[in-house]
Specification:
Chain A: It holds the Pfam family Oxidored_q2. Chain A: Its EC number is 7.1.1.-. Chain A: One of its GO terms (molecular function) is NADH dehydrogenase (quinone) (non-electrogenic) activity. The complex is a heterodimer of chains A (99) and B (552). With 99 residues, chain A is mainly α. Chain A has a single domain (1-86), classed as Helix Hairpins, CATH 1.10.287.3510. Chain A contains 3 helices and no strands. Chain B has one domain (3-546). Chain B contains 21 helices and 5 strands. In chain B, the strands form 2 sheets. Chain B has a 3-stranded antiparallel β-sheet. In chain B, strand 1 and strand 2 (98-100) form a beta hairpin. In chain B, 59% of the residues are buried. At the A-B interface, helix 1, helix 2 and helix 3 of A face helix 7, helix 8 and helix 11 of B.
């Protein structure tokens, strides 16, 4: 199969993730959509790695996974603390500061 | 390339020699990387201090450790620069991952000094009233406790303080040191995350107004992660375009020095769509970090909600690091593409300067006002970036150094003006402050005049340098817009000064807390740098000039 198809899939997943970030209201779901974007990047890296015949892309995919894991740790800590003090994880409710 | 040839890269026939043994041990130049390594080491030691040192000794242990680490790292930067790594011996270290050159060392020195001054504001413990006999700083007693709950009261009563902020600060500084010196896109991304993640946490740790602080952290985190996902996708596309993430190789492919020889790679290598979209996405991520319009939406909320010492540090050091990375990306990787990115950056610079200055006029909160002012300043610095001349680099370096100390100083002054609810950030409460506390008001006035770019302050020297570079680089209309938006910005800085000195103090007005020597030092350094760079900028301009050459 032509590896370019995987690039189309990566772009599609990335777009779905980005759209989800923009339209979903629950902070956890927004965060999951960001993770989907990162995984779409991983797919693109691995595909390009296969096309170029070098291993850089695969190594980068490992780094991305570690970064995504670290982001989960920090992000969930922040979102959970917000949820515990407001009993809501909606990003619309977090509006104490407005112009 | 045939499938079997590709597979031979990661599979091997049983009879072939073991390919693993052919990988050379990487050579790491520890001496040239020492500033970063010192800060990372101290941050890890700080985590161990949190784990093993008794609670009552932690604050002093952390403060001494962090101060020493930042000073030693700064000395290391100065020694590297004195050895000529900034000019003649500039090189690429760590197997191509890190560049050790003039801009990198200059910005690392600036970040370390700004972080040191920021550290003093972090450690300030005399501003908040004593909680049950313990002196407390600006950070939550226990970040995990729910605001207003019994567990929070218990934590306050027990006199807990979040001394974890010191290692978090050091981790952020370590990422910032790598960010402007990253020489491949993977290092760039990892450095971006390493300095962003601690900042997200620091934003959530305010002692007062905790709901706002947590909200700021959520906003910063979600938008920051969103932007870094875009950066990563841009990196993926550039990797597909060039087959490498190294700055030098990508630049060669962009220039056409490396021709696309393999027809099997026609889909990716040298495909201009990948280059343009990839470069745009990476630049977008960096513009988010510097807070340029239209990627600025997080700035006012995060600056307002975060604890003020964190805001000051973040506003100064993040901007230095992100502009350093942006300069290197545009000047080293994408100079072959400058006819494509310059018009876009023109547009971004113009709307950033005007947008920041105009929206700032309507602000009523001093922290939000400073946030919008920082957006406008990002626009001024972008004008220098667009110059694409050596003068452009050195003027941006000088502006960043001047701007960072003014910013930390200004936010340090904001921490002093307090009422019963903590910091009194609403501007109406600042009326008549100059009559009650002339010194504090005068110091803030110096900083505001420097922001406005009045002569004899560092702001004037910096603005003059970037606008001169932009005009000589063929961006004269940009300079006209810059001067107009400086005039608009001067209006609201002067308005605050007028409010402080020429209106009647309110009876329920805030009090000015008497700070410890730490904050006094932070503000004093800010004033001194502002005046020295304003009155005698030539030495520092020469320094920035010598440092203004990237290694490739």
């Amino acid at each position: 199969m032509n590896p370019v198809n995987y690039l189309y899939l990566a772009a599609l997943l990335f777009t779905i993730g980005a759209t989800g970030v923009l339209i979903r209201r629950n902070a956890i779901v927004v965060f999951m959509c960001i993770e989907l974007m990162l995984n779409a990047c991983n797919l693109a890296f691995v595909t390009f790695s296969r096309m170029h015949g070098n291993l850089d892309g695969q190594i980068i995919a490992f780094f991305t996974m570690v970064v995504a894991a670290a982001e989960v740790v920090v992000g969930l800590a922040i979102i959970v603390s917000l949820f515990r003090s407001r009993h809501s994880a909606s990003v619309d409710d977090a509006s104490l500061m407005k112009l | 390339m045939s499938a079997s040839a590709v597979h031979s890269l990661w599979t091997t026939a049983a009879t072939a020699a073991d390919p693993i043994s052919k990988i050379d041990t990487p050579k790491i130049e520890y001496g040239q990387l020492s500033p970063t390594l010192i800060v990372v080491g101290a941050a890890i030691a700080g985590v161990l201090v949190e784990a093993f040192v008794p609670r009552k000794y932690r604050y002093h242990a952390q403060l001494i450790l962090s101060t020493a680490a930042l000073i030693v790292a700064f000395v290391a930067v100065v020694m590297l620069a004195a050895d000529g790594y900034g000019t003649t011996k500039a090189r690429i270290a760590a197997m191509g991952a890190i560049a050790v050159d003039g801009p990198a060392l200059f910005l690392q020195g600036t970040i370390l000094l700004a972080a040191l001054v920021g550290l003093f504001t972090f450690a300030e413990r005399r501003l908040d009233p004593e909680a049950h006999g313990t002196r407390v700083d600006s950070f939550a007693a226990q970040a995990a406790s729910v605001p207003g709950s019994e567990s929070e009261q218990a934590a306050v009563k027990a006199g807990f303080t979040t001394t974890e902020v010191f290692p978090l600060l050091l981790f952020a500084v370590a990422g910032m040191l790598v960010f402007p010196s990253a020489n491949d896109l993977l290092t760039l991304f990892i450095a971006l995350e390493v300095f962003s993640l601690p900042l997200y946490l620091l934003c959530a740790l305010a002692r007062r107004k905790r709901l706002m602080s947590q909200e700021a952290a959520v906003k910063y985190f979600l938008l920051g992660a969103f932007a870094s996902a875009f950066t990563l996708f841009g990196i993926a596309l550039l990797y597909g375009y060039a087959g490498s993430v190294s700055y030098g190789t990508i630049a060669q492919v962009v220039d056409g020095t490396v021709q696309n020889v393999n027809p099997a790679l026609a889909d990716t290598m040298g495909n201009d769509a990948l280059l343009l979209v990839g470069a745009a996405l990476i630049v977008m991520g960096l513009l988010f970090k510097v807070g340029a319009v239209p990627f600025h939406m997080w700035t006012p909320d995060v600056y307002q909600g975060a604890p003020t010492p964190v805001t000051g540090f973040m506003a100064a050091a993040t901007k230095v690091a992100a502009f350093g990375a942006l300069l290197r990306l545009l000047y080293v990787v994408l100079p072959g593409l400058r006819w494509d990115w310059r018009p876009v950056m023109w547009g971004v610079a113009i709307i950033t300067m005007l947008g920041g200055a105009i929206v700032a006029i309507t602000q009523t909160d001093i922290k939000r006002l400073l946030a919008y002012s920082s957006i406008a300043h990002a626009g001024f610095i972008l004008a220098g970036v667009i110059a694409t001349t050596p003068d452009g680099v050195s003027s941006v370096l000088f502006y960043l150094a001047a701007y960072s100390f003014v910013t930390i100083g200004a936010f340090a002054v904001v921490t002093l003006v307090r009422d019963a609810g903590g910091e009194a950030t609403h501007l109406s409460k600042w009326a008549g402050l100059g009559r009650r506390s002339p010194l504090v008001a005068a110091v803030l006035a110096v900083f505001l005049l420097a922001f406005a770019g009045i002569p004899l302050t560092s702001g004037f020297a910096g603005k003059f340098a970037v606008f001169k570079a932009a005009a000589e680089g063929g961006a004269a209309p940009l300079v006209v817009v810059g001067v107009i938006s400086s005039a608009i910005a001067a209006f609201f800085y002067i308005r605050v000064i007028v409010l402080m000195f020429f209106s009647e103090p309110r009876p329920d007005g805030p009090t000015v807390a008497v700070p410890s020597p730490l904050t006094v030092m932070a503000i004093g350094v800010g004033v001194a740098v502002t005046l020295v760079l304003g009155v005698a900028p030539q030495y520092f301009l020469d320094l920035a000039n010598q440092a203004g050459v990237f290694v490739r």
